[in-house]
Amino acid sequence: MLPSGFEKIEKNAAEQTPPPALHTSTGHCPSRDEKVSTTIETLSSLILPESLGIQRDHIVTEAVRPPQFDNHYDFHTLFYDAFFVPESHTIRLICPRLLNLEDFIKEATFTSNGEKLTPRLQRPNWRNDEISLRCSKPPTGLKVRFQETELSVSPGTQDRESFRGLRCAVLKSRNNDLAWISDWASYHVKVHSLEGLVVFDNGSDQYTVEDVASVLLGVEGLKVVRVLSADFPFGPNADGSDIHQAKFLQGALVEIARLRYLQCAASVLLVDIDELVSPVPQSTIFDLAEKSFLGYVSIPGRWQYPEGANMAPARHVDHVYVSPTDTPCRPKYCIVPQGRLGNCYWDLHSLGFGRSRLGMICRNILRRALKRMLTNDDARFWHCRQITTHWKYKRENPAPEQLRLDTASKELLDRVFE
Fold first, then answer.
1. Pick from 19-28, 258-267, 309-318: least confident
2. Closest Cα to residue 212, out of 227, 197, 223?
C-alpha cells in the first residue's frame, strides 16, 4: 500500500488533482541585473603522506570487503576541513572515522602561532569524528608534528553571516551534468524560493569547480552560493549489513556545511541532485519546516521515470511517469538550524544523536514518539531515476507497461522548465 499522498498516481488522468500554482516568495529575489554572490573555496584538509608509514585501518572485516574495496577506501585523510570558530576560539577539524589514527592524534603535537594546542575528540556519529583545538587568538596556520615529520595547513574561518536568514540547501556532486545542476537549483528557486546553496564537488574530472559556479550564476533567484572542492575518496560499499560503514565522506560534508556556513540560515533542505521536492500548496518546504514545532520536517519520496529506453539520457523535466507498485524511497528532510533539533548531527536521511548505543536508542524513540510532529502530509519528493551517472549501480526503468503518466507532475515540470 502506498503512503498517503501517493495514491493519486493510480487514478485516471482526468481524475488527477491539477498541479498547484508556483509559490511566489514575498522576499527579495535578485533581478536579472543583480549578481549572485558566488565563492569558490577549497577545504583545508590534511592528508597523511604515504612516506609516513601510517594509514587508517579497515573499518570492516576482510570477510565483507569486496575485491575493489581498497581502491575506494580512504586510508590517508586525517581531516577533511579545518576552520576557526571565532565565538569559541577553537579550530574545528571534521574527520573521517579515525579508528587507529586516534593514536596518531594523541602522539602528535598541534601548534598555532607558536601555541601548543590540546586536541579534544568528539564522536558525533558512526562514520565521522571531530576534533576541537582551543586557541588564544585567530590562527595564521596549523602545524601538526609527528616524530620527525611536520605537516601544516591554513584553516578557513567559520562564515555564519553570508547565509544568515536565507533558505538554503546542501548539494554533493561528482561529474553530474551541469544542466542537471542548473535545473535542480532553478526548480527549487521557482517552486520553494531557495536562496542559498552550498555545493561540494567531489573531484569531478569532466569539468572544473569554476564551471559549476558559472552555471549557478545563471540561476535567477539564488542570492549566495559556495562551491567547495572536496576531492576525497567517496568510500566503497561493504557486503551485508556493513554496506555503508566505509562511506565517511557524505555525512562529513553535511557537517561542514552545518558548522561552517549554515548555523544562522533560516532553514536548510537536504536532498540530492536527482530529487525534487514536490510543490507545497500555497507554501514551500521551507515554510513547513520553519512553522513546525520542532523546526524539522521529514520528506518521503517516490520514484519517477522518463519515457523511453532504460538508462537513456534524460533531464528532470522528463521524469513524469510513476509505477504504482514501487515502494517509497527513504526520506530526506528540511531543518531549521536554530530550531529545537538544529544542534543534532545532520545525517543523510534523518538526524543523529551520537555513536553510543544510547544515541541510537534516542533516535529510534524520537522517530516513533514524535512521528506525527516530524512529518507533514504536504511534504514529498520525486526521485528522478535517470538523473544519475550510474556510479552506484545501473538504474533501470520498469517495463513500459508498468508505468503510468502522472499528469500533475508533468504539468508542473513543464511550467517550471518552459
1. 19-28
2. 227
pLDDT of 31 strictly over 60: no
3-state secondary structure of 280: strand
Tell me how far apart the terminal alpha carbons of the chain are, to the nearest angstrom.
34
**Number of residues in the chain:** 418
- Sequence-ordered list of residues with C-beta below 8 angstroms from that of 15, at least 6 positions apart, any chain: none
Query: DSSP letter at 8?
Result: G
Query: Are 96 and 249 contacting, i.e. CB atoms less than 8 angstroms apart?
Result: yes
The kind and range of the H/E element at 51 are: none
- At residue 217, the 3 state secondary structure works out as helix
- C-alpha–C-alpha distance, residues 37 and 42, integer Å: 17
In the predicted model, what is the mean pLDDT of the chain?
88
Is the pTM higher than 0.85?
A: yes
What pLDDT digit, counting tens, does each position of 66-106 carry?
999 999 999 999 999 999 999 999 999 999 999 999 999 99
Segment (H or E) for 169: strand 167-173
The three three-digit cell numbers of residue 84, written as one number: 576557526
Q: Mapped to the 3 state alphabet, what secondary structure does 351-408 carry?
A: EECCCCHHHHHHHHHHHHHCHHHHECCCCCEEEECCCCCCCCCCCCCCCHHHCEECHH
Burial class (CB in 10 A: 0-12, 13-18, 19+), 188: buried
Contact 219, 186 (CB under 8 A): yes
Alpha-carbon torsion angle 92, 93, 96, 97, nearest 10: -70
